[in-house]
Amino acid sequence: MSGLEPLRLRLDVIDDEIARLLGERFEICREVAVYKSEHEIPMMQPGRVEEVRARYLARGAEVDLPADFSAGLFDLLIAATCRAEDELMDRLAAGAERRVKS
After folding, report:
1. What is the pLDDT of residue 100?
2. pLDDT (tens digit, 9 = 90+) per residue, 69-102?
3. Considering only CA atoms, which of 74, 73, 84, 78 is closest in space to residue 27?
4. What are the boundaries of each domain within the chain?
5. Fewest C-beta atoms under 10 Å: which of 26, 37, 39, 41?
């Protein structure tokens, strides 16, 4: 193997790990949604979002990522996970309402 191939293989391994970690993050967010539903905690927790955002941007700076890239990636990630969490909480609430009405 020579040229770009070894580097591309390393990138492929990293991309696979990123996908695996994102899947794990989404799974944990679903667990958070269930917990929030069971304990009647609002989905959106702005203080927590800002805390995580600050940590994410600081971590990005530590590994020399451009700030606009880190911010954009975080915003995309949070939007997607919050949407998934919100949708699951809505489904759980609808299921609970159906059980109460039965």
Report:
1. 64
2. 999 999 999 999 999 999 999 999 998 766 666 5
3. 84
4. 5-101
5. 39
- In b/e form, how buried is each residue of 4-24, taking b as 16+ CB within 10 angstroms? eeeeeeeeeeeeeeeeeeeee
Virtual CA dihedral for 8, 13, 19, 20, nearest 10 degrees?
Answer: 180
Domain 5-101 bears CATH identifier 1.20.59.10: yes
Q: What is the pLDDT of residues 39-78, one digit of tens each?
A: 999 999 999 999 999 999 999 999 999 999 999 999 999 9
State the sign of the Cα–Cα–Cα–Cα dihedral 94, 95, 100, 102.
positive
